[in-house]
Amino acid sequence: MAVKTTYDFDQMLSNAREAYGEELFRMAEEGIDFVFTYSDNVAPSSSAGKLLSKYPERCFNFGIAEPNQVGASAGFALAGELVFAQVFGPFLPLRAADQIHTDIAYNYVNVRLIGTHAGLTAGGGPTHNDIADLALYRAIPDLTVIVPADAGQCCKAIRASVGFEGPMIIRIDRAGSPDVYADGNYEFEIGKAIETLPGEDATIISCGSMIYECMKASQLLKDKGIRAGVLDMHTIKPFDRDAVIRCAKKTGVIVSVEEHSINGGLGSAVAEVLCEEGLPVKFKRIGLPDEFAMLGHLDQVYRRYGLDRNGIAETILKLTGK
Q1: Count of C-beta atoms within a 10 Å radius of residue 29
Q2: Whether residues 105 and 226 fall in one domain
Q3: Segment 23-42 mean pLDDT
Q4: Is 114 a domain residue?
Q5: Domain span at residue 209?
Q6: Helix (H, G, I), strand (E, B) or coil at 288
Q7: Does any domain span residue 211?
Q8: Together in a domain, 18 and 86
Q9: Is 143 a member of any domain?
Q10: Quick one: 151 and 241 in the same domain?
Q11: Which one, of 249, 267, 121, lies nearest residue 205 by Cα?
Q12: Are residues 125 and 213 in the same domain?
């Protein structure tokens, strides 16, 4: 059953970076015990800044020493604490890979690494494009990886992580993504994809802020007589294989869309399922090619690589032959 969504996107922007801080503040007010570590980009006026102001004894600033932050977060967790750690996303997988692998995952500790500025949203060009992280995270054992579609889903992920055992990455964009879901009255379960829109002719499998463009692409395709469904694969690990198989058998056309390199990310996970199950479907990955992305306005970059609604719709038109 598809959930209730909204297409009034341009008027309904939300900010996952603010939302997670608000959720943590609410949890602290409710008496939930946790430690918060952060990089020096947390502004005092932000929602996370409110947590710092009222509960300074549980908040620790590590400046721009991301490996130290991740390692110390593991130490807090080994001492019995639940830890939420906000880290600048482009630096998290590259600078702190060893700490994520050995300190966090190998020790199987309850640390939730919140990687911000995911994909291309940092706006800082190739050095700050976070486009290889999912490939690393997928290869690390025992590491749960969640990519929320909007601010509300980010809050759901934060809540769901409280009673969840083991290490976790929550990958969010910089800010200002449209609300995908009209309200919070839908079930969010770690490891279970959500049928955001139903479809009969094709299925778009995506995650994070790309869900927005996929839904708009579905609108464009509907005008051309193609019913394209959208599957929100918010959890990259553990991967919902059953959802991919179900959609492949139903529509026969699968397109993955991700703000990540086409190597090793969501599209690779989908391809692995399709190949291993021997499903005779038409399949295409949309993401960043094997190159450093161009420097430019985010909308321009999306258009360049076919990540915008028009590019996604065009890819599906070619696959369906309509």
Answers
A1: 11
A2: no
A3: 89
A4: yes
A5: 194-317
A6: strand
A7: yes
A8: yes
A9: yes
A10: no
A11: 267
A12: no
Contact assessment for residue 74 and residue 46, using Cβ atoms and an 8 Å cutoff:
no
Amino acid present at 291: E
Distance CA(306)–CA(214), nearest Å, equals 11
pLDDT attached to residue 9:
43
Decide which of 131, 151, 178 is a domain's last residue: 178
Return the bridge partners of 35, or none.
Answer: 83
Q: Is the pLDDT of residue 141 over 70?
A: yes
User: What whole-number distance in Å separates Cα of residue 224 and Cα of residue 170?
Assistant: 36
Same domain, 30 and 110: yes
Provide the whole-model pTM. 0.92
Instruction: Label residue 124 exposed, middle or buried (CB < 10 Å: 0-12, 13-18, 19+).
Output: middle
Number of domains in the chain: 2
**Do 19 and 157 sit in the same domain of this protein?**
yes
* Span between the terminal Cα atoms of the chain, in Å: 27
Backbone angles phi, psi at 280, to 5 degrees: -85, 80
Residue 273, number of CB atoms within 10 A of its CB:
19
Which CATH number belongs to the domain containing residue 258 in this structure? 3.40.50.920
pLDDT at 203 over 80: yes
Residues 109 and 211 in one domain: no
- Distance in angstroms (rounded) separating the CA atoms of residues 173 and 15: 8
Last residue of a domain, one of 150, 178, 206: 178
Task: Tell me how many degrees the CA angle 78-159-98 measures, rounded to the nearest 5.
Answer: 40
- The residues, any chain, with a CB within 8 Å of residue 306's CB and separated by 6 or more, are 286, 312, 314, 315
Average pLDDT over residues 302-317: 96
The residues assigned a catalytic role are 66
Q: What pLDDT is recorded for position 47?
A: 73
Is residue 241 within 8 A of residue 269, CB to CB? The reply is no
- Residue 297's pLDDT band, with cuts at 50, 70 and 90, is confident
Residue (of 52, 86, 81, 260) closest to 169 by Cα position: 86
Percentage helix, strand, coil for the chain under 3-state DSSP, each rounded to 5:
40, 20, 40
Give residue 293's identity as a one-letter amino acid code.
Answer: A
CATH of the domain at 151: 3.40.50.970
Residue 202 host element (H or E): strand 202-206
Q: Is residue 186 part of a domain?
A: no
> What percentage of residues in the chain have a pLDDT greater than 90?
74
